[in-house]
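Homework help board

Subject: predicted structure for assignment chain

Our instructor gave us this sequence and asked us to write out the predicted structure in token form, then describe one feature. I got the tokens but I'm not sure how to describe them. Can anyone check?
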Amino acid sequence: MLRLVKTENGWVKGIPAADPRITAFKGIPYAAPPVGDLRWRAPQPAKDWDGVLECYQFGPMAMQSPIKADPNQLYDREWHVDPDHPMSEDCLHLNIWTNAKTGDEKMPVMVWIFGGGLMSGYPSEMEFDGERIARRGVILVSVNYRLNVFGFLCHPEITAEDPEKPANFGHLDQQAAIAWVKRNIAAFGGDPENITVFGQSAGGGSTMVQVASPTNKGLFQKAILHSSGGMLPPSSFGLKLEEAERQGVRFFEALGVKTLEEARRLDAKTVFEAASDRTAGYYWGTIIGDKFMPDYPVNFFKNNTRNNMAIMAGNTGNEFRVVPRGSTIEELEDYARKTFGGKADEYLALIKKGSSSIEEMKAKGTYNSFELGNVLMLDINSSYKTSDAYYYIFDPEIPGWDNPGSFHSSELWFAFETLAKCWRPFKGKHYDLARMMCNYWTNFAKTGNPNGPDADGTPMPEWKPYTAEQRGAMFFGDRPEMVGPNEDEVFNFLREAYLKGEIGDSISSFAQRFSLGR
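My token output:
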């Protein structure tokens, strides 16, 4: 087995995974620690080391709110179970799972970007174990990156210091990690010309950002977007650089510092606590207007100027449902006019038709915002006919006393096939579904097409591409099956009006009001 590997910075030694045919390398530095004078700077090259670096443990998670491991909170009981997980500004590490025996095998590579609203999260969450993916002959790499104020602060002094890279340090970390993989993964048995980047929630939005960035030409070949928002938030908004710089000036005033040098001398906890003041209204996220992200990510998709590659995109069935606001007809009509402008009468006619109460009208007007955003993105992609795209909806029965439905992030256990680590009483049908989902994901990483046989050689249900003529989705319920497009009248009213540019600004601003959660 490949336990000892030479990287560009020195030798690394991995450890056997639970399956000893697989080696895990944990906590490999891909960039210099972003501390001291490197705080709020683009990632710098990692320094060489002497001897052999033992990569047996995950690196610390980036600065964020401490893990509370509160069993009453969904995500805490789901996977944030260790309140003692280390945390540090020195967080730019990645992890690799490979079943290669030599460095000459040219296996496909998947690079994972975790979610958490660009505010929290870490690659060592237990559902992200890469062993099951590696067993399928695909190398899994998970990356850590800077979050919140450490990853997304802007300030005029920072811009003056490096006008080429004045912002988006968290995204630049992700880019640097992918570039490190491209330069080094051959030594781990990987193919640097067959890299798939994938992520979920803010990780899905980050993947969309990486696909869009004009600085990433040729860096990777395929992308999978789990719950990215598609053409709706979080991928369709962000502060302009000038706005973010003004926020940075205000933040320095709150810190009680006058210069960037003074701010860099403050300890990380002090900086994070000040940045977490909810009354201050800070925004820490993707910045628009630098060389890395000169325009909103969605506009690169709309204009067909994104990096051209095959994509998979999808959402869960029970996430970020937009419910019309109002408890009277008058309030509902006011909501419609503010949200849909000149299309309000058409919208109101649809939700009133056949309804005998406000509750029925609101139920008719409810839609899954991430489903809408994904369908819009795929519709626009199909109009250009330049790359294959595949769409999925994840909506199986999720067991457990909390009856959570297919909540935002619930597909992660299945895509990584790590159900055995979960507390939920999953049954055989869930394990079958997870096995096939992981098959589809890794097949896509191998060839750009998710189809292929199951573990016993029988063909899995065919997953057809999303095209203008075939707007179907692979529906992951009790088992995978292709389904046709959503025929709901209100959903298609929104879809068609958005594609015609009739309600684009209003629907995006409306969706921004909703918490994007994890």
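Reply (TA_rk): Your tokens look well-formed. For the description, you could write something like this. The radius of gyration is 23 Å. That's the kind of observation they're looking for.
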